[in-house]
């Protein structure tokens, strides 16, 4: 069976908790690209990818849409049940640009699983359990406000928190201290700089937070700087923006830099390439987080399937983007509860999408 049509939709998704602040810049929401691939029998697979503005990753919405429009004709006539071969065709047609390919790749995996009549997690190794721990991010602002936000998230059931740092290191120390004092000791904290520090800033921060319990995530953008910090810091380190390829993961592991890996589907290029890096990370004994740069219900469903098919012992946590934004783009995702994300039932992503809600 072959793919007979492909379509791109757009959805603007405002943040429910107000502007998201990272690296000193603010975004009001996601500008999401949604792809539909239809097979000859009428089955439709769905994919979603959304950058966080233009400052976070090497992608921005206007370019992403233009790239997807260029690639969608490539999918016509390809097998509807061979997503890896579709990925080969996309890579042949366009060099690099993983964020452009991500929603198409996700839709191809959803389509294949729907046609086969199985959950997407089955094609990714099989679900291990029924739920995944969730975290929530606390944007950079004054320490007291961040502490109050942390307490609010804990009251709402989230038991893992990501504290945005990466600005002035002394101000960031105050932020971490305030949040750590505001929540129970058994709530893990991740100090996530998103690569925003210079080396000297990161070293000052870790030196002044030696008495706090936390994980350090992507302190600097450059790999050499992160390696220096890892060798001088007793905290476990997670790389996020620094992991784009399998080579990145292997290099960081060989150098003893990382204890965990955060994999964003759109940054890596879709379900297929993310699965490859995830499986290698698992084989290396690393804790794995799979999430994305943005999106709503479709993206959250894909994240759930990828995390549920990751062995329980090596899951860190993930995000519920559908609850970060004020609009949904599918039905069928279970409600989150007790700080956990649950996978949908049914074939493929297990959700139902009504294209009438989108704009072209």
Summarize the structure.
It is built from 12 helices and 14 strands.
Question: Judging by the overall fold, what is the CATH architecture of the largest domain?
Answer: Alpha-Beta Barrel
CATH superfamily of the largest domain: Enolase-like C-terminal domain
Give me the strand/helix succession. EEEEEHHHHEEHEHEHEHEHEHHEHE
Please tell me how large the radius of gyration is. Answer: 20 Å
Q: How much helix is in the residues?
A: 25-40%
- Tally of alpha and pi helices: 12
User: In what order do the strands lie side by side in the largest sheet?
Assistant: 7-8-9-10-11-12-13
Here the CATH topology of the largest domain equals TIM Barrel
CATH class of the largest domain: Alpha Beta
Q: Determine the N-to-C terminus distance.
A: 27 Å
Gross morphology = globular
Please render the helix and strand layout as text.
Blueprint: E1 3-14, E2 20-22, E3 25-27, E4 29-39, E5 44-49, H1 61-75, H2 83-93, H3 98-116, H4 120-123, E6 131-133, E7 136-138, H5 143-155, E8 161-164, H6 169-182, E9 189-192, H7 199-208, E10 215-217, H8 223-232, E11 237-239, H9 246-254, E12 260-264, H10 265-268, H11 271-283, E13 287-291, H12 297-308, E14 340-342
Parallel strand pairs: 7-8, 8-9, 9-10, 10-11, 11-12, 12-13
Antiparallel strand pairs: 1-4, 2-3, 4-5, 6-14
Helix pairs in contact: 1-3, 2-3, 5-6, 6-7, 7-8
């Amino acid at each position: 069976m072959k793919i007979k049509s492909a379509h791109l939709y757009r959805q603007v998704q405002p943040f429910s908790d107000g502007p998201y602040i990272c690296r000193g810049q603010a975004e009001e929401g996601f500008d999401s690209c949604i792809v539909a691939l239809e097979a000859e029998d009428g089955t439709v697979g769905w994919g979603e990818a959304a950058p966080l503005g233009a400052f976070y990753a090497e992608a921005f919405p206007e370019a992403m849409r233009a790239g997807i429009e260029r690639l969608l004709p490539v999918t016509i006539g390809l097998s509807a049940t061979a997503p890896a071969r579709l990925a080969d065709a996309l890579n042949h047609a366009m060099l690099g640009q993983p964020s452009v390919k991500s929603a198409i790749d996700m839709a191809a995996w959803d389509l294949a699983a729907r046609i086969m009549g199985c959950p997407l997690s089955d094609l990714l190794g099989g679900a291990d359990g029924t739920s995944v721990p969730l975290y929530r991010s606390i944007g950079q602002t004054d320490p007291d406000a961040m502490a109050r936000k942390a307490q609010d998230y804990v009251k709402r059931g989230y038991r893992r928190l990501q504290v945005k740092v990466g600005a002035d290191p002394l101000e960031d120390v105050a932020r971490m201290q305030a949040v750590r004092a505001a929540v129970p000791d058994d709530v893990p904290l991740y100090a996530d700089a998103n690569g925003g520090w210079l080396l000297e800033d990161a070293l000052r921060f870790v030196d002044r937070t030696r008495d706090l319990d936390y994980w350090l995530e992507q302190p600097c953008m450059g790999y050499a700087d992160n390696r220096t910090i890892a060798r001088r810091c007793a905290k476990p380190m997670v790389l996020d923006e620094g992991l784009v390829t399998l080579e990145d993961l292997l290099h960081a592991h060989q150098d003893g830099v990382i204890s965990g890996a955060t994999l964003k589907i759109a940054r890596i290029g879709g379900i297929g390439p993310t699965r490859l890096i995830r499986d290698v990370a698992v084989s290396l004994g690393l804790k794995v987080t799979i999430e994305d740069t943005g999106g709503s219900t479709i993206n959250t469903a894909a994240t759930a399937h990828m995390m549920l098919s990751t062995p329980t012992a090596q899951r860190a946590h993930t995000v519920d983007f559908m609850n970060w934004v004020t609009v949904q783009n599918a039905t069928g995702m279970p409600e989150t509860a007790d700080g956990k994300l649950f996978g949908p039932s049914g074939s493929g992503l297990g959700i139902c999408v009504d294209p009438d809600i989108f704009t072209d």
